[in-house]
TrEMBL record:
The keyword DNA-binding does not apply. This is NAD(P)-dependent dehydrogenase (Short-subunit alcohol dehydrogenase family). Keywords: Oxidoreductase. It comes from Catenuloplanes atrovinosus. PANTHER family: SHORT CHAIN DEHYDROGENASE, SHORT-CHAIN DEHYDROGENASE_REDUCTASE FAMILY PROTEIN.
Length: 276
């Protein structure tokens, strides 16, 4: 039996991961702002579901809940940092509050959670730390600038941290889904574009949920399989749309960089003072 700790379990992939883990006979420590939202699962699975209220923007609460979970459950095999939110709109049009809230939840919250869970995993001799990222950690679309800023930040943080904590037997996995039809999109704030952006790239409507080809259940199942495998990958790119978009973007980015090879090496030379 695998023991999981999953944040953001009220809806979307967090809820789906919790349901699938419990259904396969595992034990789940689930955190969310309103634990009563999982009353149905508690009635069905009893003490295999451990619940606690937790807001990832509250570092003291993160520390307290993690301490309780590890003390009461013993070893936790897989920790999934899933909590997040979205605000979609032209970068200029977002309010300071919207920007601060998204960074605090998606980026700072993920970093603070990871910093506080690593000592527990190290003390028990290892484990798997899964961070929900996105195809948006590699590519960028209009109206998603701040969301992309948080996901690109998460990617850099975890790639560096993975190297630091590997000697402790802790594996990290960045999950990078494509467009999965979850309640995340319904819950996201949408900011109407201001006059200068009307008719431009920022004014394009988002993809309707009904046009998304990925499935929430299939995506969650792939995460569970990878996280419980002997060698979890550093990055798990999921869904066909993400595979096509990310690989084509990276190929173009590499081609652009290779075209700048001579310029890059020329910058190593000392620039003559006579030309300054």
């Amino acid at each position: 039996m695998t023991t999981w700790f999953i944040t953001g379990t009220s809806r979307g992939l967090g809820r789906e991961l919790t349901e699938q883990a419990l259904a396969r006979g595992d034990r789940v420590a689930a955190t969310l702002r309103r634990p009563e939202q999982l009353d149905d699962l508690a009635a069905e699975y009893g003490d295999r579901l451990w619940r606690a209220p937790m807001d990832v923007t509250d570092s003291a609460q993160i520390e307290s809940v993690l301490a309780r979970a590890f003390a009461e459950l013993g070893r936790i095999d897989v920790v999934v940092s899933n909590a997040g939110l979205g605000v979609f709109g032209a970068a200029e049009d977002l309010t300071d509050r919207q920007i601060d809230n998204m960074i605090a939840t998606n980026l700072t919250g993920s970093i603070q959670f990871a910093r506080r869970v690593v000592p527990h995993l190290r003390e028990q001799g290892g484990g798997v730390l899964v961070q929900l990222s996105s195809q948006g950690g590699h590519i960028a679309f209009p109206r998603f600038a701040i969301y992309h800023a948080t996901k690109w930040g998460v990617e850099g943080y975890f790639e560096a941290m993975a190297q630091e904590i590997a000697p402790f037997g802790i594996r990290t996995m960045l999950v990078e889904p494509g467009m999965v039809p979850t309640t995340f999109y319904a819950a996201a704030e949408r900011v109407p574009v201001s006059a200068p952006y009307r008719g431009g790239p920022a004014d394009a409507p988002p993809m309707p949920v009904e046009d998304m080809v990925a499935t929430q259940s299939g995506t969650a199942h792939a995460i569970i399989v990878a996280a419980t495998s002997p060698e979890p990958p550093l990055r798990l790119l999921l869904n066909g749309d993400a595979y096509e978009a990310v690989t084509s973007t990276l190929r173009q980015r590499l081609a652009d960089l290779e075209s700048q090879r001579d310029t890059a090496y020329a910058a190593d030379a000392e620039y003559p003072r006579s030309n300054r």
